[in-house]
Amino acid sequence: MRNTMRTSITVVILALSLVVGGCAKRQTPVATPQPAPPAAQPPQIATANPAPPRRVDEALPVPAQPAVSDDAASSRSIDDLNRNSPLKPVFFSVDSADLDETARAVASANADVLKKNSSWVITIEGHCDERGTAEYNLALGERRAIAVKTFLVSLGISPDRVRTISYGKEFPFDPGKTEEAFYRNRRGHFVITSN
Amino acid sequence: MMTSARRHRSGPGGFTVAASLLVVGVLAAQQTPQPAAPAQQQPSEIGARISGDSPLTPPHYAVPDFVALTPNATPIAQMLAQVLWDDLNFEREFDMIPRDVYKSIPVARSVEQVPFGSWREIGADGVFFGSVEQKGNDVVVQVRLYNVRTRAQVFGQEYTIAARSARRIAHEVADTVHQQQRGVRGVARTRLTFVSDRVRESLLGTVEKRNAKEIYVVDYDGANEIRITNSRDLNLNPSWSHDGRAIVYSAFRHGGPPDLLISYITTGVLQDLTKGRFARNGGASLPVFSPDGRRIVFHATAENASAPDLYVINTDGTNMRRLTTHPDSDTTPTWSPSGTEIAFTSDRTGKPQIYIMSAEGTGPQRRLPIPDAEADRATWAPAPFNEIAYSARNGPGYDIKIHELATGQTRQLTFSEGTNESPAYSPSGRHLAFTSSRSGLVQVFTIGRDGSGLRQVTRTGNNQTPDWSN
Fold first, then answer.
1. Is A113 part of the contact surface with chain B (CB cutoff 8 Å)?
2. Are B266 and B315 in contact (CB under 8 A)?
3. What is the reported pTM?
């Protein structure tokens, strides 16, 4: 049944007489071992084998994940570039994805840098302060990243060079609880992903 | 004791019929209905239901320590009694007598020795008798429930399970007794999944220091925490499949745009559902399994769209369709219990509000008449509760509120103790899980749908977006 994952329990209805008398325990039926029925196969997964009929403990296997590789050698120069990036972040008002005058000036300067470095491909990360819900901020961060991309494209940057991603409020730049910290965290952050 | 016991051999007789009933079942993971079902059919007779002092007062139950029939079974015997007490207390269908009260009552060594007189003296209407025998790596557990007044056994089962999974037995008993005695679907065997940063590892390969978040699974009562991702990435918004065998979540692999991954947690198979289809435009987020487990609704942004919309896709990755096209955000979806409608958040009025549309995306999109300036993360209650829980802006943070669809009325479950977000119903609809910062870091809590019975489930790290299994 639901979430009885990997648990196998033999169940016996105890002798259900009203007996409280001496023979109650001897009346208890004995579990007859039976193989567990085959696990229902998860649908649509060709590679998933049905669990073999056996008694197992309830430890869940950790699904295989692609190995995490640091990519250190190949990405080092880009990391260095991003550490002192010529592309500056743009900041947003509370609950807004609109680029104000300051933000447009910063984004225009970034567009000039991108025109001079025509091989660069960038990702614009949309970030939010902590005051919305985690869920809603994913959408808000996305709108912010898209707004920046749209503005860059309007300045002649090829959309093929600009990707977007939202981190919502998952990765605050400033963990503080001040208005200043919140302001720093409401940003479109430029990351060079290929040079 | 023996005399009085015998006296009741001819008592109300629901179970004499069942005396020869010998049901052996093997409960494997995905079996429905559970093998306990034959027992559940028995107590339709009046005598099998333990009543309280009056029809209006819940019966008082006592759960003394189980008897260890082998010396090494003592810890399990004590643990099972406590877990069973906790499980039975959770639904608040019984008035559970605190276990301290009957510490002085000697534990019966056998069913013949159950001191019914003593139990009656402390006001118990029902009392359990359990025994545990360790056999190698297994334990054999017998559990019986007696009506203290009539001394009749109203429930009795024997279980065999690996010793390290013994806790499960208490959950099985609690769910069965709730069903038999109260007609209530218990949640003792359910689990929660959630996101946590507790490992405090940084993502690899990024410029700034960013904390990884991984997906976890835990029993409804906070026991048996298991980490199900190990990718040192950002993993968000897990959602259970209807059968509790799979969890879908958004995985920002290598920090990149998220794909939806389905983790079949009983087999270890990991399936990439979206395969980079939205990699250029922010990825895919906030997936939710449909009630029948066949489809997943999620949010993603189409090429050239100005904001995310809702999409639906079959669990095998086929038949992906865009459901909404509004230029403002449509996000955070939830299915109606029948799977025919979807509620979601949109900021088309300038602030997040909750809307309902058909699950095909056709027809009108109706805004819920919710009074809050901001409402997000709708979660549709299972039947028969015709209501939607959501996070409501309360000033600096959020509170959990519930909107009754039939009456249009709204009630509140939390009252500005920290920020309270991400409500998720239990499969019975009688409880909700949510996150709260009331105790410091953000933790997962559960609470009754009437606002009573608050319990903290997680204790470490920051935890977010719980979802409750069937």
1. no
2. no
3. 0.84
